Amino acid sequence: MIQRALLRTLVRSLSEVPAVCLLGPRQVGKTTLALEASRKLNANYLDLESEQDRAKLAEPELYLGQYLDRLVILDEVHRAPGLFPVLRGLIDRSRRRGAANGRYLLLGSASLDLLRQSGESLAGRIRYLELAPFSVLEPTKAPSDKLWLRGGFPDSLLAKNDASSLRWRQDFIRTYLERDIPQFGPRIAAETLRRFWTMLAHRQGSLLNVTDLARSLGVDAKTAAHYLDLLVDLLLVRRLPPWHANVGKRLIKSPRVFLRDSGILHALLAIADLDGLLAHPVLGASWEGFVIENLLSVAPAGLMGYYYRTSGGAEIDLLLVFPDGERWAVEVKRSLKPKLERGFHEACADLKPARRFLVYPGAERYPLAADVEVIPLPELAGEVRRRASRPR
Predict the structure, then answer these.
(1) Do 263 and 242 contact (CB within 8 A), yes or no?
(2) Which end of the chain is more exposed for a tag (fewer CB within 10 A), N or C?
(3) How confident is the model at residue 257 (pLDDT cuts 50, 70, 90)?
(4) Domain 144-388 CATH assignment equals 1.20.1270.20
């Protein structure tokens, strides 16, 4: 059992609010984390993919009314959208009995639909947490390059060898295409969506151009946008938004698109091992996406990530904006002798970030210039976590 970094936050949240919704893609470890929390909190667990457990909720108010003084975990809760109004009433009943917090832990694999369903009924009663794949700060004992190659899904990272890991990821992709995605809307041909997903992999880190994607896929732009929205909703793709600032320059305003898990990216591109990855054209974009995802996953509450780019070439790969408005500029290089380009300095002159970093795959931390540090990814991830958890 590898204890997830989110466990402490999850337990604390359950002590502070009536309901917590734990979001994350399938197989990322939500159920394992929830069951670990349940051992601390003596919870009752229901899996709504199980016909037996769904049958218990034929009369949900009657069944759940037995557990007003006990935490109930509802796994794959998006399968029972009609449950949310019932939960609201039960939460209010618990409040009147003096048991206000820690009533329900809801697990779901799709964010947008679940957020809408729960937000309409449980406004003011629910907190949302996202469980990402393993990050470089979690105690997996895996070297960074192994985590980068295989991605952070537990069964992929912990497979006995690279070949077994790749087979797991290929099966994961197939299962999503053929079984999971059809649950969330009108049926999409699995092969069409696979082609679209693979196209995004080849364009890792590029500016979003829906028209170009649609043309390459042979569909209209509205359909291509729907496919992208679906993968974003399933927490498989990230749209990194541009930073808008009144700097008197012409800014690039299209989001950049990244597959969130590097292992899934590599499986879609048929990259089997580290040698294959190091020789592949996606190398730099894959490393950049891996760095960005790790930094954004270690301190999700209140921390926002953007990129900055002007038409004149000023550019910051990742701009971290903390809740108090402080900004950190992050450049990403896959080189043991990294150098900064003029565009980064121009962008920093525009935005004046409080701190400036260059992330590279080496092990040492050192100053590159008076105001820029070269830093390994795990060290910067630790800096971000400590800064984000500082009392405001």
Answers:
(1) no
(2) N
(3) very high
(4) no
